[in-house]
Design brief:
single chain, 190 residues, alpha/beta, binds uracil, Uracil-DNA Glycosylase, subunit E
Length: 190
């Protein structure tokens, strides 16, 4: 069983974090959302404007797509998995998170993974994939493959914002990756 109190204490610590300059521009820290006992963890990049205002990851256009594909291919809602980001505060003008910001925020994600202890982690896009696999290889090369990360299987797929832009084939590939994730979750329960 996950230690919900420990996760909540971590959330409260993160809520007043000033470890990097992103603290200055944020409306609030976007810690993560979902079931602390989830088998499946999605990891995105960082909050955008809507997430910064709502205090919840993936509530904008990318999030709507993620919710839809998660439901259609895995049969799960966001309440039944857990969704977190590499950085918990919005980078200004939705720029990429900087290396020092990723480094400062890294312990929060590491703790989230250790407390939630998911059997499957789906990384969404380059930032979470590179961070959690400690690689410089890109998402196009890595997506759809299964990696071991501690006790979890890690499956990289595209970021939904990329799929919104690219459409067609990228959408089909992301759907196929989520079907793979569903099978991995089922295998972890067996
Ligand atoms: N993109 C992300 O990577 N994370 C969010 O929470 C929203 C958009």
């Amino acid at each position: 069983m996950p230690d919900v109190d420990v996760l909540e204490r971590l959330r409260l610590t993160a809520a007043t974090c000033t470890r990097c300059p992103l603290a200055e521009g944020r409306t609030q820290v976007v810690f993560g959302v979902g079931d602390p006992g989830a088998d499946l963890l999605f990891v995105g990049e960082g909050p955008g404007r809507e997430e910064d205002l709502a205090g919840e990851p993936f509530v904008g256009r990318s999030g709507k797509l993620l919710d839809r594909l998660m439901w259609e291919e895995i049969g799960l809602t966001r309440a039944e998995c857990y969704i977190a980001n590499v950085v918990k505060c919005r980078p200004p003008n939705n720029r990429d998170p900087a290396p020092n910001e990723i480094e400062a925020c890294r312990p929060y994600l590491a703790e989230q993974i250790s407390i939630i202890d998911p059997s499957v982690i789906v990384t969404l896009g380059n930032f979470s994939t590179k961070l959690l696999l400690e690689t410089t290889r890109g998402i196009r090369e890595l997506r759809g493959q299964v990696f071991e990360r501690g006790r979890a299987r890690l499956l990289p797929t595209y970021h939904p914002a990329y799929v919104l832009r690219a459409g067609g084939e990228a959408m089909a590939e992301m759907r196929a990756d989520l079907v793979r994730a569903k099978r991995l979750v089922a295998a972890g329960r067996a």
